Amino acid sequence: MKITVMTADEQILNLDVDPHETVENVKALLEVETRVLLQQQQLLYNGREMRNSEKLSALGVKDEDLIMMVSNAAPSASANALSFNPDGSAVNPGAFQQHIKNDSNLMAQLFQSDPDLAQVILGNDLNRLQELLRQRHLQKSELRRQQDEELALLYADPFDVEAQKKIEAAIRQKGIDENWAAALEHNPEAFARVVMLYVDMEVNGVPLKAFVDSGAQSTIISKSCAERCGLLRLLDQRYKGIAHGVGQSEILGRIHVAPIKIGNIFYPCSFLVLDAPNMEFLFGLDMLRKHQCIIDLKDSVLRVGGGEVSVPFLQEKDIPSRFLDEERFAKETSSSGAPVTSGKADTSKNSPSGGQSSGSARSNPTQGPDFEAKVAKLVELGFGRDAVIQALKFFDGNEEQAAGYLFGG
Questions:
Q1: Which of 279, 286, 338, 371 is most buried by a 10 A CB count?
Q2: Which SMART domains does this entry report, sorted A to Z (predicted)?
Q3: Are strands 248-262 and 198-203 parallel, antiparallel or unpaired?
Q4: Same domain, 89 and 60
């Protein structure tokens, strides 16, 4: 007849035995199958212990019956070494690592289910192993907690307002989790770090890593960088102001023109000078437009002058680490990753000395009849109305600066 034996670790064994076989002989068969010594086995049938001398037929065991097997062996030293602490870390990380390493089947499964843990097992960093085991323990605990909460919601009172809120939140979170899983499977590159666009340039003969950002209104250079490039002597402090983004930085002034070298060609460039120690040089939209630049992400190059010069964007390894410090850099950048100035020059036409006036105290120079008169005057010079309005707003209503910008563009 056939009997089924279930072990304490839920292993199921099917044995073909004679009905008149003794329990001791059945244990001998199980010793071969389970590697548990006969003396350490305890067989139970219908909750009653089966003695070695008894026969299966005398105990009432029939075809297809189930017998439970438990081991009464004391935990071995090796078993203790492979146990875990309450926080999920291994009691003996070295023994745990060696045990997993020696089991090729287990390692193969681990590479499929948890490649990060498999790599750590193969390494020599036991601290990292313990840390990863703790993380996995926390993840399992959180998963169990969520499952318990979901189970509780199934039996919650459907007329309980708080229970309904929890059910709604659980449904919403499930949708988020499914969306995250789909993105991880079909769009994994979305989780990778995006490196900003930098190119090699020379400013007044000094080599720099220029941050290219079409989301910044103006080209910007830091005070320290301008000093290193020998340009601080040209700083026009009449253009003081505040650059607004996620945070804000002080605009120290403007350098109206200086040579920059892109590839083998020199181009004229103007910059705002900011008190921004974590950002050296930002190539903004004003100069990108002026020099007809193309940000070619397919070939990963910046094309200047409509394509007469092409310079490659730098790889992450070629960008100084201080430029990649996102936490500090974000304090001085906009949501697009570049400082955005609220005004190019806080100067007044009635203040020839260049005195600073408060932006909140003075009237808006980009509205009213005076502004319309400036627009009409510049339109008569042959410029489009939209371009004129944009230029005047760009320079806070300063007619001369707007005209210079339009002629220069």
A1: 338
A2: UBA (SM00165), UBQ (SM00213)
A3: antiparallel
A4: no
Last residue of a domain, one of 71, 94, 123: 71
Report how far residue 130's alpha carbon sits from residue 128's, in angstroms, rounded to the nearest whole number: 5
Quote the pLDDT of residue 245. 61
The answer to whether position 363 is within a domain reads no
CATH number of domain containing 24: 3.10.20.90
Share of the chain above pLDDT 90, in %: 16
Alpha-carbon gap, residue 176 to 138, rounded angstroms:
20
State the residue range of the domain holding 29: 2-71
Per DSSP, the residues of 57-124 read TTTT--TT-EEEEEE-PPPPHHHHHT-B-TTS-BSSHHHHHHHHHH-HHHHHHHHHH-HHHHHHHHSS
DSSP class of residue 271?
E
CATH of the domain at 399: 1.10.8
In a shared domain, residues 19 and 96: no
Domain endpoint, select from 174, 190, 206 = 190
Among 148, 177, 213, 296, which one carries the catalytic annotation?
Answer: 213
- 79-93, 95-109, 158-172, 189-203: lowest mean pLDDT where? 79-93
| Number of neighbouring beta carbons within 10 Å of residue 238 | 17
Residue 76 belongs to a domain: no
Q: Is 65 exposed, middle or buried (0-12, 13-18, 19+ CB in 10 A)?
A: middle
In a shared domain, residues 224 and 332:
yes
Task: Reply yes or no on whether 213 is catalytic.
Answer: yes
- Whether 43 maps to a domain, the answer reads yes
User: Which pLDDT does position 310 carry in this prediction?
Assistant: 92
Please tell me the pTM assigned to this model: 0.45
- Structurally, the chain folds into a number of domains equal to 4
CB 25 within 8 A of CB 19: no
Q: Where are the alpha helices (DSSP H) in 155-248?
A: 161-186, 223-228
SS3 category, 204: coil
Backbone phi, psi, residue 40, to 5°: -95, 0
For the chain, the average pLDDT equals 78
Query: Is there a single domain that holds both residue 223 and residue 329?
Result: yes
Establish if 364 belongs to a structural domain.
no
For residues 127 and 80, give the distance between their C-alpha atoms in angstroms, rounded to a whole number.
20
Claim to verify: residue 219 and residue 331 sit in the same structural domain: yes
101 with 107: CB under 8 angstroms?
A: yes
Quick check: 392 pLDDT over 90? no
Query: Quick one: 144 and 99 in the same domain?
Result: yes
CA distances to 17, 193, 283 from 302, rounded to whole Å, are 80, 21, 11
